[in-house]
Structures are given as C-alpha cells and as structure tokens.
Amino acid sequence: MAALTLIKTRGMKDEALPQLGALRRACAGRHEAIEALLRLDEALEPARYARVLAGFAAFVPRWEALVRARLPARLHGWFDARSRLPLLRRDLAALHLAPAAVDDPVAALALPDLGAALGSMYVLEGSALGGQLIARQLRQRWDMGPDNGAGWFTGHGARTGALWADFRACLARELGQDAAALASACAAGAATFDALLRCFEQVLGAEGHTEATMTTKMSREV
Ligand code: HEM
Predict the structure, then answer these.
(1) Cβ(111) – ligand 1 distance below 6 Å
(2) Is 219 part of a structural domain of the chain?
(3) Quick check: is 96 in a domain?
(4) Most buried among 137, 139, 178, 201, using CB within 10 Å?
(5) pLDDT tens string 113-172
C-alpha cells in the first residue's frame, strides 16, 4: 500500500524541529506496533473496521477529557477546534456502532504537566496524517466518506496539513528549549501509544455483536 512508502519517508521532513524529532524517536517502535495491530491495509474487512472504530470511540472521549483538563485554559479553544470526536460520533451513528466495552484506557495515563499533555496530543494529531491514507482507501473500496462512516479517518480533510503545521508550531513555542518539558512530552507520547495498544488489544481480541451488526449493514449498502 502507498502508506508503506510514506512511512519509510516519515521523518525526512521537519528535521529542523528538534522537539518533533525527539517525539518521533521516542514513539517510532510503538507506531509500528499499532499499525501491525490495527492492520488497516488492503486486507481490511468491514467487521475489523467496525471494531477499530468502536475502539477509537472507547478511547477518544476519555482521552480528550483528560488532555483538556491538563491544558491551560488559554489553549482550550485551540484544542476544541481540532477535535475529531464529533466526526467519530457521526460514524458510530451512521454504522449503528457503540463504543467498545474496555477498561478505562486512559486510567494509567499520567499527564503531569503541559509538556506531557502536548506529547500525548502528538500521538492523536499524528494519527490524522495516516488517517488521510486510510480515508482514501475507505472511499475507494467502500465508497465511504465523512457522512457514511469514514469521518474519523477523513478528519479535517484538506485542512489536515495546515493543522499539523500549526500543532508543530505550538510544540516548538510551548516546549522551547526546556529539556525537562521535552522529556516529559516524549514519555507521555510513548505512554499514550501504550494506552492505545492496550485498548486495541482488548477490542481486537474480542469477537462480538459489533462485527455482526456492521457486516450486515455494509453488505446491505454495497
Ligand atoms: C491508533 C493508530 C495510530 C496512531 C496513534 C498513529 C500515530 C501517528 C503519528 C504520531 C504520526 C506522526 C509521525 C511524525 O511525523 O512525527 C503518524 C504518521 C503517519 N502514520 Fe500513523 N498512527 C496510527 C495508525 C496508522 C496506521 C494504521 C497507518 C497505516 C495505514 C499509519 C500511517 C501513517 C503515515 C503514513 C504517517 C505519515 C504521514 C505523513 O508524514 O504525511 N498510521 N501516525
């Protein structure tokens, strides 16, 4: 898949931004692990897609509440404007899915300071980049878009690049040359990937109702 080529070139850009380079290094192995776990490649099946969405639906609301609470009030409007949660909720409604029943996926995620909150945000902000490739695949294979089940991965669509640039600028501005803040961001980025991995290990290990419901709905629509 085209994603693989892009993944190999990831890190070639933004070399001038040391904060981003450090986050990438801290998280690279875990990104590979989550790609391997989700397997959103050409072999993706509707049932698996449904479980992945249900997993994000279990994770994202709790994660957003946690991060928002750790950010200073001056960044709340900025954070809220980037949210993809309404799009995810629209997907659940369109596909008649419910959030997966998992242990609180962010219970073990300590975000003690602003650096940690931004490091955690790096993970979900970055996932919007890979999401563009997945959205393209969903459109091609199942004619799915933001209105019928692919809203989360479509995200902010054409604005994704600009939002990522804005996030990188925020990282540089807020972390500056503060080594302790950067270390906190890297630890939180890794811990956020771990929390996602734990969540999806539970979701994708389970068989169930979600799969049956989604398969029926999609086969009706295709
Ligand atoms: C929960 C799942 C995922 C998370 C949390 C996640 C997280 C991230 C992060 C943090 C980045 C930014 C890396 C950087 O530039 O520093 C990124 C980029 C990327 N991800 Fe993922 N990712 C996920 C799933 C996937 C999957 C399943 C794929 C493949 C199908 C994928 C493909 C990519 C690609 C191609 C990029 C680079 C995009 C670009 O540079 O334009 N990701 N992801």
Answers:
(1) no
(2) no
(3) yes
(4) 137
(5) 999 999 999 999 999 999 999 999 999 999 999 999 999 999 999 999 999 999 999 999
Structure token digits, residue 149: 């089940």
Domain that holds residue 187: 18-213
The closest residue, in CA terms, to atom 13 on ligand 1 is: 126
**pTM for the full predicted model:** 0.89
Pocket test for ligand 1, best of 35, 41, 51, 168 (most atoms within 8 A of CB): 35
Residue 46 lies in a domain: yes
Residue nearest atom 32 of ligand 1, based on CA coordinates? 130
pLDDT band, residue 43 (cuts 50/70/90)? confident
CATH number of the domain bearing residue 138: 1.20.910.10
Q: How many domains does the chain have?
A: 1
Q: Band of the pLDDT at 205, cuts 50, 70, 90?
A: confident
Which residue type occupies 196? Answer: L
Q: Is position 8 within any domain? A: no
Tell me the C-alpha distance between 47 and 215, whole Å.
6
